[in-house]
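Exam revision sheet. Question 4 asks you to relate a sequence to its structure. Input first:
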Amino acid sequence: MTEWSIGKVQEILPHRYPFLLIDRVVSVTDGQKKDSRVGRKLKAIKCVTVNEEYFNGHFPKKPIMPGVLQIEAMAQAGGLACYLGEQDKNFELLIAGIQKAKFRNQVIPGDVLNFEVEVVKERKMRAETTLVVIDCKAFVNGVVVSECEIMASIHLNK
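Answer key, structure tokens:
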């Protein structure tokens, strides 16, 4: 298991404020095969603060983190789970589809979102492109607040 600071997250993901939605990676666990993404698990956190830009309009008197941003945060966590290290230099992950999205509870300022993601499928399309399916869940205080399955394409720009 490995923990990554925000610095390491920023080395891997191209997102920056206000769209970087992962604050820290708590753990990364490899799958059964070192060279495969399948079975890789990652736990990450996002501290939700009232200073987030989207709270200005969503909603001013009752701020709620938009579901679409929860999905984006889960996709970012999923992208981090797919990263295999030096062999993935110039790594780019793009969302190709979202399935089974469910929103179970509101996320409000002061909440700490805990993400748990697992890469469940991987399929090479070309030498530089791989499709993955990532199972994603977001929790607040141990209770699932949102979940989805993300299909993404990974591009290795050499």
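Marking note for examiners. The longest helix spans residues 67-82.
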